């Protein structure tokens, strides 16, 4: 089975991280995620992340470090979820694919109903506690 490459941002504003809840009608509807989306062919991970954040949230960020990559097998698809640490710059927060957003403290991440692929990323963030 092909693997879908998905890039997401761990977007920091001071000591909080942005979580977004996927609209009910989408795949994994109702789950919270780190915003981002699929990497198009011939697109760099950074360009894909900037494009998705602009399209989905009208948001600008500064992309910093590669944080972690997770391979996760869902029922119908395998995804490679590539997470980058980002610094929030500004956003209009016009919600297209989500119906709620929240800025969350590192230690509260696991109290949200996270997309399964995101759980190991949240656990690593909590373990590192460097932010
Ligand atoms: N953006 C994002 N997607 C994630 C995360 N975790 C996770 O499992 N995914 C999954 O990775 C895929 C990302 O695609 P996408 O967000 O661009 O979704 P899409 O609207 O293009 O496609 P769709 O038809 O699957 O809804 C989705 O299937 C989504 O459920 C995450 O933290 N961020």
TrEMBL record:
<dbReference type="GO" id="GO:0008413">
    <property type="term" value="F:8-oxo-7,8-dihydroguanosine triphosphate pyrophosphatase activity"/>
</dbReference>
<dbReference type="GO" id="GO:0006260">
    <property type="term" value="P:DNA replication"/>
</dbReference>
<comment type="similarity">
    <text>Belongs to the Nudix hydrolase family.</text>
</comment>
<keyword id="KW-0479">Metal-binding</keyword>
<protein>
    <recommendedName>
        <fullName>8-oxo-dGTP diphosphatase</fullName>
        <ecNumber>3.6.1.55</ecNumber>
    </recommendedName>
</protein>
<dbReference type="GO" id="GO:0044715">
    <property type="term" value="F:8-oxo-dGDP phosphatase activity"/>
</dbReference>
<keyword id="KW-0227">DNA damage</keyword>
<feature type="domain" description="Nudix hydrolase">
    <location>
        <begin position="2"/>
        <end position="127"/>
    </location>
</feature>
<dbReference type="GO" id="GO:0046872">
    <property type="term" value="F:metal ion binding"/>
</dbReference>
<dbReference type="GO" id="GO:0035539">
    <property type="term" value="F:8-oxo-7,8-dihydrodeoxyguanosine triphosphate pyrophosphatase activity"/>
</dbReference>
<dbReference type="InterPro" id="IPR000086">
    <property type="entry name" value="NUDIX_hydrolase_dom"/>
</dbReference>
<dbReference type="GO" id="GO:0044716">
    <property type="term" value="F:8-oxo-GDP phosphatase activity"/>
</dbReference>
<dbReference type="Pfam" id="PF14815">
    <property type="entry name" value="NUDIX_4"/>
</dbReference>
<keyword id="KW-0235">DNA replication</keyword>
<dbReference type="InterPro" id="IPR047127">
    <property type="entry name" value="MutT-like"/>
</dbReference>
<dbReference type="GO" id="GO:0006281">
    <property type="term" value="P:DNA repair"/>
</dbReference>
<keyword id="KW-0460">Magnesium</keyword>
<keyword id="KW-0515">Mutator protein</keyword>
<keyword id="KW-0378">Hydrolase</keyword>
<keyword id="KW-0234">DNA repair</keyword>
<dbReference type="InterPro" id="IPR029119">
    <property type="entry name" value="MutY_C"/>
</dbReference>
<dbReference type="InterPro" id="IPR015797">
    <property type="entry name" value="NUDIX_hydrolase-like_dom_sf"/>
</dbReference>
<dbReference type="InterPro" id="IPR020476">
    <property type="entry name" value="Nudix_hydrolase"/>
</dbReference>
């Amino acid at each position: 089975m092909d693997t879908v490459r998905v890039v997401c941002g761990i977007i920091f504003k001071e000591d909080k991280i942005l979580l977004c809840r996927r609209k009910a009608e989408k795949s994994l509807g109702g789950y919270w995620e780190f915003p981002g989306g699929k990497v198009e062919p011939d697109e760099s991970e950074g360009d894909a992340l900037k494009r998705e954040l602009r399209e989905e949230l009208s948001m600008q960020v500064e992309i910093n470090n590669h944080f972690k990559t997770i391979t996760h097998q869902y029922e119908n698809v395998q995804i490679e979820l590539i997470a980058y640490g980002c610094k929030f710059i500004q956003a209009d927060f016009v919600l297209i694919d989500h119906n709620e957003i929240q800025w969350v403290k590192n230690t509260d991440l696991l109290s949200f109903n996270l997309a399964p692929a995101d759980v190991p990323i949240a656990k690593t963030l909590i373990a590192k506690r460097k932010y």
